[in-house]
Amino acid sequence: MNIFFKAALGIFFGFLFQASSQEPTPTPTSVVEQDYHQLLDEVRQGGLEEFQKRKPATPEEYREYLHLLTQLVESKTLAEDWGSAANALEKQTTEIREAIGHFQPPEVTPETGLDLYDKARLKVWQAEDWLEALNKIGSSRATQETTAFATLKDQQQRLESLQAAGPAESPRDAWLLQLQETRVQAILAEHTLRSNKQSWQADVDLQKARIQLEKLNAASLEGRVSFPEQVLQTKLSDIQKLENKIADSVAKVGRQLKKASPENPPLGEKDAASRLATSFQNQLELLEYHRIALLITGQVWQSRYDLWNTKNAASIEQIARLLDEKAQDVQAWQLLITGLRSKLQDRWRKASPADGSGDAPSTPANGDILDKAFQQEEANLTEWENRFSRLFELIKLTSADITARRKSAGIGEKMDAAATSLTSQMHNFWNTEIFTLNDSVFVNGQVVQRPSPVTLGMLLIAVAILVSGGLASSAFSRWLRSRLSMRFALDANTGAIVQKFTHILLLGVICLVALAVVKIPLTIFALLGGGAAIAVGFGTQQLMNNLISGIILLFERPIRIGDIIDVENFSGMVTSIGTRCCQLRRGDGVEILIPNSVILQTKVVNWTLSDSHARQEFSVAITQGAPVKKAMDLVHGIVSANPNVLTRRGIDVLFQDFAKDALILRVLYWIDKTNPHSANQVPSELRLAIYEAFQNEGILLATIQKDPHLEAAPSPK
Q1: d(CA 430, CA 459)
Q2: How is 84-143 classified by DSSP, letter by letter?
Q3: How far apart are CA 417 and CA 214, in angstroms?
Q4: How far apart (Å, rounded) are the C-alpha atoms in residues 555 and 553?
Q5: How far apart, in whole angstroms, are the C-alpha atoms of residue 290 and residue 253?
Q6: How far apart are CA 548 and CA 545, in angstroms?
Q7: Is-contact 316 406, C-beta < 8 A?
Q8: C-alpha span between 117 and 223 (Å, rounded)
Q9: What pLDDT is recorded for position 6?
């Protein structure tokens, strides 16, 4: 083994492990330096069979050995290339630093100043982007270096284990030792390559020097550059020349498309003709995209000229808004370019005779024509991509100009700009498009679909009209009810019907007015009606059930406001009949809301349906031997004397029954249920008066007792 190589390898490992604060790993003692190019050629010649005649290697080991040798050759080549590149980069860095030391501001004319200023700023941004990418590469290389170091340590330990076993006793052991040495050499070469940061550092230094030089150049040009109208006309003239060139290209591709689109292509040529026609159609689309890019470029140059020649804050903010819109359009094209290129490559691959898919052209002539068409399409796509990149740079330069103008503005101009920006943002917010509706209109006897955008401002106006109109409708319907009730003596139930239907009618009119004010076409309901009806039907089924039930209750009038009813387990007076529920007030003052559908679907006891009179009764038990006739007269007189008893409906005091230890009297009388105290207060007053009268007359009230009857069990016989 080469002693110098061993020594260098040992020093390298010692340095690495010392730098990484790890225990030093013993140096390999049998690593042999060789010419890996020659060794790789020898291994490749003859393949596996010839190699196995010399080495007892398995197929997997042969492939690994071949891969390791290839890796060693590539690492050596890369190290040489990186070394040459580092020297070239260091030389460029030295030249740039000398230029910085002897920097002289360039001469500026009105025609060339802006281009020089733009180039200097673009070079700064490009160098900054490249420097950022280099920093990311440096971080990635550090991670890869750590991984390679760990792998190298593991492989070296395996090599030491093989070497510790002593001299190889068989060809197989010698081969495994050689393979392990090659593994260590390959990983060592990779680690050395990753650890060599000379080229990377040289590139970083070069980009930093470029940034310093171009920033110095841009700073010297700043304040000395203008944007005269002559420069604008030159830019627009160049754009016009490109547009004329595109028009010629469109005409040329159009002629090619006509030739490539025969009505009846020969048998077997249909696929080729279809691919050719598709390629020409795509070229026409790309040329149209290119024309649009030129159109936007001209608009941006015009906006930039206005920006450089105005100090009005409102104009600057208007240009900024226009630039934002154009920037969004340009950014949307990036994905389009990537998608078009991938589709082009896929179609080109399928049309290639080497594809083997069976879709290739049937004749070589067709293949040549298709290749030329695809090359032309790729050239158009590349040209459009380059135009896109230049347009993006122009937008970036204009954005930087806007930022500089804002910074250099005075306090008054900044306040004007802020006010203008706030007004603009409010205007944009107000005109934000929520969705677009298609309105059908008749033009010359034909139905034409006209888009009708709905903005946020339109919706807010509609909501304001609905809210204010709803409040006004509610107030007007209440006022109308009170006026009609006073003039025509309407009952409460009829007044509620008038109020609710007046309110509903006015709400419908207000909805139509709101739609007309915000210019929402009514024809959209013809399109949305079916889906909306299904959605509303399922979502508001119970609500509609209660609404219709409320309308039935108002017109059929099984219950009315003021009626005393019993429904389910509740009893009270109806105080309101709404569109969703009825309001019931119990005697204890508790308000109960009962859905209208419940009242229609369950049994309801209406105590005041035909009139408000209701009969009540109770029983009085007197002792055996008491004067029954006298007792009946006393009871009749007491009931008749109560002011809440309806004497005109009759009062009945009946001798109902003989009990075991009492005589039962039954008292029947009528009261008015609309009087909230009649139901409970009248029976209490009558019982109290009867009790006092019987005590004064010596008539005793009986207590009906229920004695248990016990039967004795029969005695056993």
Answers
A1: 10
A2: HHHHHHHHHHHHHHHHHHT--PPP--TTTHHHHHHHHHHHHHHHHHHHHHHHHHHHHHHH
A3: 31
A4: 6
A5: 14
A6: 5
A7: yes
A8: 10
A9: 40
Q: Are 672 and 623 in contact (CB under 8 A)?
A: no
CA torsion angle for 433, 436, 439, 443 (degrees, to 10)? 80
Provide the edge-to-edge strand list for the sheet that holds 663-672. Answer: 613-622, 663-672, 652-658
Task: Give the C-alpha separation, 33 to 5, whole Å.
Answer: 7
User: What are the tens digits of pLDDT across the range 338-374?
Assistant: 777 788 888 888 877 654 444 555 556 566 778 888 8
Domain 558-606 has CATH 3.40.50.620: no
Instruction: Return the pLDDT at 211.
Output: 92
Query: SS3 letters for 196-249?
Result: CCHHHHHHHHHHHHHHHHHHHHHHHHCCCCCCCHHHHHHHHHHHHHHHHHHHHH
Average pLDDT of the chain is: 78
Q: What is the Cα–Cα distance from 594 to 586, expressed in whole angstroms?
A: 12
Exposed (0-12), middle (13-18) or buried (19+): which is 260, by Cβ within 10 Å? Answer: buried
Q: 391 in helix, strand or coil?
A: helix
What 3 state SS string does 593-622 have?
A: EEEHHHHHHCCEEECCCCCCEEEEEEEEEE
Closest C-alpha among 652, 530, 672, 681 to residue 611: 672
Report the 3 state secondary structure along 7-30.
HHHHHHHHHHHHHCCCCCCCCCCC
Domains in the chain: boundaries: 3-221, 229-430, 453-539, 558-606, 613-697
Distance CA 648, CA 662 (A): 31
pTM over 0.90? The answer is no
Handedness of CA 515, 517, 520, 522 (dihedral sign): positive
Which residue's entry shows tokens 């061993």?
6
Taking the C-alpha atoms of residue 673 and residue 687, their distance in angstroms, rounded to an integer, is 19
Per the structure block, which two tokens stand in for 339? Answer: 């998608």
Q: Is the pLDDT score of 233 beyond 90?
A: yes
The three state secondary structure string of 620-658 is EEECCCCCHHHHHHHHHHHHHHCCCECHHHCCEEEEEEE
Q: Which amino acid is at 356?
A: G
**How many Cβ atoms are within 10 Å of 584's Cβ, its own excluded?**
24
Distance between CA atoms of 138 and 93, rounded to whole angstroms? Answer: 19
**24-49 pLDDT per residue, tens:** 333 443 334 567 788 888 888 878 88
Question: Phi, psi (5° rounding) for residue 438?
Answer: -105, 120
Residue with tokens 């591709």: 253
Strand order in the sheet with 591-595: 591-595, 581-585, 570-577, 564-567, 604-606
38: left (phi over 0), alpha (psi -120 to 50) or beta: alpha
Domains 229-430 and 558-606 share a fold: no
Task: Assess if CATH 3.30.70.100 describes domain 613-697.
Answer: yes
Which region, left, alpha or beta, applies to residue 358 given φ > 0 means left and ψ of -120 to 50 means alpha? left
Q: How far apart are the first and last CA of the chain?
A: 132
Q: One-letter amino acid identity for 347?
A: R
Q: Which fold has domain 229-430?
A: Methane Monooxygenase Hydroxylase; Chain G, domain 1 (1.20.58)
The larger pLDDT score, comparing residue 133 to residue 435, is at 133
The count of other CB atoms within 10 Å of the CB of residue 576 is 14
